[in-house]
Amino acid sequence: MPQKTTTEKRALRKVIRVIPLIPLGVFVLFGLIGFATERWLFHTWTALAMDEILFHLSSSIKGTNPEMVHAYILHYGVYIVLAFALFVVSMVLTKRNRILRILSVCFWIALSLGLLEFSLYDLDQRTGLRDYLIQSSAPAQEQTGDFIRDHYTDADTVDISFPKQKRNLIYIYLESMELTYADVKNGGAFSQNVIPELTKIAQDNEDFSGSSGILNGGVSLPGTTWTMGAMFGQSTGVPLKLPISGLQVESQIVTSFFPSLTALGDILQREGYRQVLMIGSDSAFGGRKAFFDTHGSFEIFDYSTAKEQALIPENYFVFWGFEDARLFSFAKEELTTLAAGEEPFNLTLLTVDTHFEDGYVCQLCKKDFKDNQYANVMACSSRQVAAFIKWIQEQDFYENTTIVLCGDHPTMDTDFCSKVPADYQRKTYTAIINSPIKPVDPERVRLYSTMDLYPTTLASLGAVIRGNRLGLGTNLFSLADTLLEQYGVSKCTEELDKPSSFMDSFSNVSITEETMKKAAEEANLSYREEDNGNITFVLSDANALSSSSVKSAVLELTDGSGETKTIKMEIYQPETDPNVFWCLGETDLKESEIYGLKAEVFFNVKGYDHYLMGTIYP
Fold first, then answer.
1. What one-character DSSP code corresponds to residue 582?
2. Highest mean pLDDT: which of 72-86, 408-422, 445-459?
3. Could you give the CA distance from residue 308 to residue 329 in angstroms, rounded to a whole number?
4. Residue 561 burial (10 A CB sphere; 0-12, 13-18, 19+)
5. Strand 274-279 and strand 345-350: pairing?
6. What is the rounded distance in angstroms from the CA atom of residue 227 to the CA atom of residue 173?
7. pTM listed for this prediction
8. Is the Cα torsion angle 485, 486, 490, 492 positive or negative in sign?
9. CA–CA dist 39, 54 (Å, integer)
10. 151-199 pLDDT per residue, tens
């Protein structure tokens, strides 16, 4: 065997010395990136909550504003590179001095541990991370009461009747729009009214301010404080909450979004509405496309659509895609087309120019507020929305159209509301225009959340909702109390900050043919004799599905002549475990009468009607 040369031996010793530094370098880099990312997150989103963190970790970043990525690299990436370069230099300079090398290694380990520990501590202080993890990991039977489960009203169990002539709906989510921006005398918190046109629209129409004479709006509760959470909450009446296990289901969320929930779009689709979503950004971002595909099969017009139809230049991109001036122009064309059709329509818009940080200055913006860019952008948005509403009111279809304007959530801008008093309750802007009904008690000032807009929007279309509740929402035109009126903002916030096993049961995200087959294979169909001698059929163990995804279950008993008797089954779920349920079909038959019958159980699940889950021959 040939002997190694002196040069080769030296090279080998260098490699051996460097190898232990590789895991140290990875650890140091991890600490630097973790610290920088935590700092960036809370500098960018000052009121970040666990629900939002979990959701964005679980969903696609496709369509993210590139300026946000650039800001991270510019403000924090440079420091990460410089700090890591300093680590490398210190390792090189101490390679010949064992004591200095040990001291240097200890310093970098201590620094990295300190940065990670501080980041986790700060994250916990801001979001309640530790309590959230403890409650999420506890067995269901050990968790505290589930506020959402205890107050939830399933829309599929409620009688909702529409008028013979269905009204059109135009629903506009106004990015980061708060009534806070109005002046103090009108219920805002600013000395000068930044949104005078929107203020007048709310005053002339319905915002449920009763006899107060000042603006009123919806409180954004946990799970509704970012755009997708807000759209979800206003459409379903519940907050957007994912379990910790939701981090493992990104691909499912992208294609299907809480399919077992019934949303505003689902109800309107059943009533024959043609539904269109128009936004100036990529609809894939944050799961918006998945949500509106799942709940109402919306036609979606977004930044990509505008490029595909050559409505904007191929390389055109400002802010998040294209600006609101273009959105309103495209929406006018779309409304003209929709109004020419025979079906009632639901056109939903999401504006973008007023997104933090500081918004987008378009060619229509003025300098009413000098160098305060965000105020100028908000004022510009107020004028544009008012002009769009005025155009709608001049069209023939307006007479039979309800318009809902609502801020999606309070702004996340770092300094725009920094001088707002701490005891001022920030609320999203709200106005319902041209509703055929008025509040039962027009003098009453309502305290409500954005989730109350779910049943309220349906009521504004002339729909009658038995019980006046859907999800966690209350029809604000009725006399029924909202959850905020019953419990107060602090109590509702505290409860909705907690993990919810009930919402977890809705989030077994995507139901496929494979899911249905697995549930049917595992299901167990049996029968038992009750104390009165009657037979009850029991289907259990179909736990590939959640109880919330099963819209209904029926038992079919067929005799030898082919005659079938159908019995609606009751679905039971223990409060202690959202992942277990069973179905009971009570009959008036005695045991001697069931012999020779064929018993079959069928489930109705979204996308799968009358699906056979089990068969027995007693």
1. E
2. 445-459
3. 17
4. exposed
5. parallel
6. 9
7. 0.74
8. negative
9. 18
10. 999 999 999 999 999 999 999 999 999 999 999 999 999 999 999 999 9
Residue type for position 82: L
Rounded to whole angstroms, the Cα distance separating 546 from 510 reads: 11
**423's tokens:** 């005891």
User: C-alpha dihedral over 269, 271, 273, 276, to 10 degrees?
Assistant: -30
- Tracing tokens 């230049």 back to the chain, one arrives at 313
CA distance 86 to 457: 58
Phi, psi for 319 (deg, rounded to 5): 60, -105
Q: Is 355 in contact with 362 (CB distance < 8 Å)?
A: no
> Which pair of tokens denotes residue 530?
């009750």
> How far from the centroid of its chain's Cα atoms is residue 69's Cα?
22
DSSP letter assigned to residue 73? I
Most confident of 17-21, 77-81, 461-465: 461-465
- Going across the sheet that includes 608-616, the strands are 564-568, 550-558, 598-605, 608-616
Strand partners, 539: 525, 583
CB 215 within 8 Å of CB 202? yes
Query: Among 182-186, 361-365, 548-552, which is the least confidently predicted range?
Result: 548-552
What is the pLDDT at residue 249? Answer: 41
Least confident of 250-264, 307-321, 348-362: 250-264
Which 8-state DSSP code applies to residue 190? B
Neighbours of 142 (CB within 10 A): 9
Residue 248 burial class via C-beta count within 10 angstroms: exposed 0-12, middle 13-18, buried 19 and up? exposed
Beta-carbon count within 10 A of 153 CB: 18
Tell me the residue type at 212: S
Instruction: Give the C-alpha separation, 33 to 342, whole Å.
Output: 56
CA–CA distance from 583 to each of 31, 185, 310, 434 (Å)?
Answer: 51, 57, 53, 45
What's the token pair of residue 176? 């980061």
DSSP secondary structure string, 136-165? HHS-GGGSPP-HHHHH-B-GGGS-EE--SS
DSSP string, 69-137: HHHHIIIIIHHHHHHHHHHHHHHHHTTT-HHHHHHHHHHHHHHHHHHHHHHHHHHHHHH-HHHHHHHHH
138 is written with which tokens? Answer: 């506890």
Cα–Cα dist 358/372, whole Å? 9
> Left, alpha or beta for 178 (phi > 0: left; psi -120 to 50: alpha)?
beta
Contacts of 280 (CB under 8 A, 6+ apart): 302, 303, 320, 321, 322, 323, 324, 326, 327, 350, 351, 352
Q: Are 440 and 477 in contact (CB under 8 A)?
A: yes
- Three-state DSSP class for 226? coil
Sign of CA dihedral 606, 612, 614, 618: positive
CB atoms within 10 A of CB 7: 8
**Which one-letter DSSP state was computed for residue 75?**
I
| Ordered domains of the chain (ranges, CATH) | 6-127 (no CATH), 147-506 (3.40.720.10), 513-616 (2.60.40)
Residues ≥6 apart with Cβ < 8 Å to 395: 335, 336, 339
- b/e code 426-454 from CB counts within 10 Å (16+ = b): bbbbbbbbbbebebeeeebebbbbbbbbb
CB 280 within 8 A of CB 323: yes
Quick check: 180 and 410 in contact, CB under 8 A?
yes
- Maximal CA-CA distance, the chain: 100
Name residue 234's amino acid.
Q
